[in-house]
Amino acid sequence: MDINAVKTNAQLVADEWKEQVSERQQRTELQEDDYNQLKSINIPLLGVPQEFGGLWKDLQTTGSSICEILRILASGDPSVALSSTMHQGVLSPWRVGTVPEEFQEQWNAQKEEVFQTVIEGSWWGTIVSEPGSGGDSGLTKTATKLDSGLKYFMTGKKHFGSGSGRTSYMTTRAVPEGEESPDIFFIKVKDIPWDGSQGIQLDNPWRGRGMRSTNSHAFTFTEFPATRIAWPGHSTELMASNGGLGPVAFTSVITGVVDSAMAHCKTNLQRILATSPKLKAFQEVHWTQAEQEYWLINQAMQTTLKTLEDGTSDRYNSLMLKEAVANLADSILNRLCKLTGGTAYTWYSPLGGWLEDVRALGFLRPPWALAYEQLFNMSINEQ
Q1: From CA 316, how far away is CA 240, in angstroms rounded?
Q2: CA 215 to chain centre
Q3: For residue 1, what pLDDT is reported?
Q4: 319, 366 Cβ separation under 8 angstroms
Q5: Cβ neighbours of 336 (radius 10 Å)
Q6: What are the residues facing 143 on neighbouring strands?
Q7: Predicted pLDDT of residue 382
Q8: Which residues of the chain fall short of a pLDDT of 50?
Q9: Which residues contact 146 (CB under 8 A, 6 or more apart)?
């Protein structure tokens, strides 16, 4: 199957999910059937290089297609789309082909191991954030104790582990024993109970106001087995290798929510106009302003995806897109709720749920404060 076939099938899946929007917005847990449906159309293989049996060719060829597919899926179910986004993002370090010669052998072996788990049906997720860190992985306090080689035991608290219970593996950050700076680790979590008996204790189940069924739980890990990335001490270079794809992928999910909200309201307004000569001026103004902001989102998305395709994408533009769309999407959904009226405040309308969903973007890594700090520094220090 090629990536265009995945895109076509993703649209069919999203259309099916749209028919279930009322029921899906009431869910508070990810469903195995949804993940199986995504597997059936090869969504997990999007981030796996072709030489390992996947669909990823390179950032220029595949990056924008992944974002388009995530946008389509999010128009049907934002929570499922967002959780599956984590899978695509965390695989990016292992798409780096060449590392220094002294690490190349172990790097090749680990890379093959990671991608083989996906080929065999595993989902990957991430649980990086820690209480009190403000989303800054550099402030990670989770400690590790060396076992042997790249094998460690990890102890610490983590939260916002999207996909928990549906993922087989998760990447995280922890401080290696004897070192000061955190590095990338991955943990195998499939079929591990959350009662503390095997090193994972569920602290708080996810209760999000939006993205309600992402399973973004909080855990305490106690001497839990973890494997360090096979090019140790180079997490910055490895994460930068994705060319800013992460923030663009998150933004694509939120844009998919806005797509559904705009289509929903347009249909409702057309229905009103079929029997009434005119809308209230208040409604006309808010709809037109929502259209303007939607146009801005689409222009920004098209421009950013183009930079992925031509190889000019960078962290600054990806972050600027994420924060701009976070503000615009929030404004659009507020306008759509206002012009719809009190029904939007009830579960009889999907608009209130979508409003809370789009508000998630500003809190996704890097969250508001950290993102603005990074953007400010990049702007001021630009030569």
Answers
A1: 12
A2: 13
A3: 73
A4: yes
A5: 26
A6: 155, 175
A7: 75
A8: 383
A9: 152, 176, 177, 178
- With CA atoms as reference, report the closest residue to 325 among 287, 360, 352, 353: 360
Tokens of 14: 């999203």
Query: Which residues neighbour 198 within 8 Å (Cβ) at sequence distance 6 or greater?
Result: 192, 224
SS3 call for 154: strand
Distance CA 53, CA 49 (A): 7
Which of the 8 DSSP states describes residue 230? S
Pick the CATH number of 243-380 from 1.10.260.40, 1.20.140.10, 1.10.510.10, 3.40.50.1970: 1.20.140.10
Express each pLDDT in 33-65 by its tens digit. Answer: 999 999 999 999 999 999 999 999 999 999 999
Q: Architecture of domain 3-119 in CATH?
A: Orthogonal Bundle (1.10)
Domain with CATH 2.40.110.10 in the chain: 124-237
Contact 333, 261 (CB under 8 A): yes
pLDDT score of 188: 98
Q: Are 46 and 64 in contact (CB under 8 A)?
A: no
Contacts of 25 (CB under 8 A, 6+ apart): 212, 347, 350, 353
Instruction: List the structure tokens of 124.
Output: 């990957």
Place of tokens 């076992």: 147
The predicted structure's pLDDT at residue 383: 42
Please tell me the distance from the alpha carbon of residue 84 to that of residue 348, in angstroms, as a whole number.
Answer: 27
- Report the top-level CATH class of 124-237: mainly beta
**Which residues contact residue 53 at a Cβ distance below 8 angstroms, ignoring those fewer than 6 apart?**
45, 115, 119
Looking at residue 72, what is its pLDDT?
Answer: 98
